[in-house]
Amino acid sequence: YLFPVMLLLLALTSCKKEEQTSEVAQTPPNILYIMCDDHTTQAISAYEHPLSEVVETPNIDRLANEGIQFDRAFCTNALCGPSRAVLLTGKYSHKNGFRHNADKFDASQPTFINALDSAGYETAVIGKWHLKSTPQGFDHWEILPDQGKYYNPDFITKDGTHREEGYSTDIITDKTIAWMDKQRDKNKPFCLLMHHKAPHRNWMAAMRHLNKYDSVKFPVPENYLDRWDGRKALQEQEMTVWKDMYEGHDLKLTKTADTDELRFNPWTDDFDRLTPEQKAKWNEVYRKKNQSFFDENIEQDPTKFALWKYQRYMEEYLATCESVDESVGRVLDYLDKAGLAENTIVVFTSDQGFFLGEHGLFDKRFMYEETLRIPLLIRYPNGIKAGTHSDAMVMNLDFAPTFLDYAGLNIPEEMQGKSMKPVMSRDSAPKDWRDAVYYHYYEYPGFHSAKRQYGIRTDRYKLIHFYNDIDEWELYDLEKDPHEMNNVIDEVAYADVKKDMMAKLEQQMKQYDEPPYEEFKDTKLPLINMPRDPK
Ligand code: SGN
Ligand code: CA
Fold first, then answer.
1. Does the CB atom of residue 247 touch ligand 1 within 6 A?
2. Which ligand 1 atom sits closest to the C-alpha of 530?
3. Residues whose CB is less than 8 angstroms from the CB of residue 118 and which lie 6 or more positions away in sequence, other chains included
4. Among 73, 147, 458, 530, which has the highest number of CB atoms less than 10 A from its own CB?
5. ∠ at Cα 321 (316, 326), nearest 5°?
């Protein structure tokens, strides 16, 4: 009769072991935060879009299938530096002081990284930083200077600046895996920010992807040839694919069929820094790619040329995104292999969205859907049900409080976002979740001439005020007009909606402690100059 007793004892100890495993699961989760630069939802197949017919991002989509996909995630100021400052602080630009790209981040203010670091997390940032300040609260950092370069990028570390041969997305991924695998203190939970440069302008894809989309005909957005009636700020922008893109630097068009000399190319260093071998390969590929443009005399017909530019733009942008999808696949594989997948929160997002030809545009800055919206996919097997979809309105402002919440730490009073944990850990958003998002963009006068603007988006409507050297209001009914072509601000039928939205805007500005309009409307900001093609 000793045998059954032994069995019982064995069963008890293995039970204990199981308890221990679930206790391990209770230890603070690791956080792997993947942020791209200008990677927009239209280019990710998990998000339904006509481009999904021709673009596949299986690795990024894996996060949606195994975690949660947010369909209505937004940024508060669609520009690189400002978005990164919001991420770190959980505060709006007017509170964290980083309103536009010429600002410098005040590193003395509290960030979620500092809080995690003090609580015993190993912290690191690898890739684009763009805040001008030296990273604070990171045990390890390797950042690209300013915008960073696609090929043979320089990295700034605690020991100075050095150049590495190769392609930025690949190098950033290698460094990320190396840090998780070998460099960090494995007794601590970690928080790593992997910040890709891709797919920022001027869209230089990895050599292996240069021909990826050559034979694809991309569906042209129905408002590509928008004439911007009734929308003055759009009429005055300088970010139109067919009129403002640099034919050399961006579209890689050469002066003639038999030269490698590029057309307008204000920053030669992006190409000059290629090694002779890289350059030879690059030029060979582009000679061939450009041949049909010259053969078919595309330039003779302005409409044809405008449409050709859209196709070339998509080839470049989407080929550059390929390396990002591969990068996500590589880090997910590593987490699996290392047994880290279950207790690691993996976030995939972007600093803002991007126009892929909608309204004829590229770049971001405007409060229209394509750029206000950010991709947001989060996987956390220990805390999020696989295959969850959320249409709760969340913002990048919420990231810092969310991470602190998951780490079991206090959320400082001054953080203005909300933890998304209640949205992520159950089937639907709590009843009292927010019903509007507030937005404010400042960088004008500046690159691309997008006017200063602030406004709110609710479930169905959007109200925008363009200000500074204009004073124009726009109101959209997103249900009837999802592409924001019809500004209904003066339509009698929308008088009540307008009144409600104005009141809601005022309430939101108060809530976030935004100064009154009269106080910020004439704020002087340094001019950021944009080179223009004399053609
Ligand atoms: C560069 C780009 C712009 C872009 C800004 C800001 N021009 O100046 O097109 O809007 O960065 O981008 S480029 O010809 O140099 O690529 S941000 O993402 O850093 O805010
Ligand atoms: Ca960006």
1. no
2. 8
3. none
4. 73
5. 135
Directed axis angle between helix 302-337 and helix 168-178, to 10°?
A: 10
Instruction: Say if CB 174 and CB 105 are below 8 A apart.
Output: no
Structure tokens at 24: 């391990």
Q: Give every CB contact of residue 319 below 8 A, 6+ residues apart in sequence.
A: 203, 205, 209, 210, 212, 213
Query: Cβ distance 127 to 172 under 8 Å?
Result: yes
Cα distance between residue 327 and residue 80, in whole Å? 21
- What type of residue sits at position 253? L
Mean pLDDT of the 52-57 span: 94
Band of residue 425 on the pLDDT scale cut at 50, 70, 90: confident
Instruction: Give the rounded percent of residues in the chain with a pLDDT score beyond 70.
Output: 95
Those residues whose C-beta lies under 8 Å from the C-beta of residue 296, and which sit 6 or more positions away, are none
Residue 530 DSSP code: -
CA distance 228 to 235: 6
Give the residue from 193, 112, 108, 23 showing the smallest Cα distance to 403. 112
Global pTM? Answer: 0.95
Instruction: Give me the amino acid identity at 321.
Output: C
Centre of ligand 2 from the C-alpha of residue 173, in Å: 19
Task: Return the ligand number nearest the Cα of 36.
Answer: 2
Locus of tokens 């129905």: 222
Give the pLDDT score at 426: 80
Element (H, E) at 95: helix 93-96
Q: Whole-angstrom Cα distance, residue 491 to residue 477?
A: 11
Task: Kindly indicate the confidence band of residue 26, based on its pLDDT and cuts at 50, 70 and 90.
Answer: low
Atom of ligand 1 nearest to the CA of 82: 20
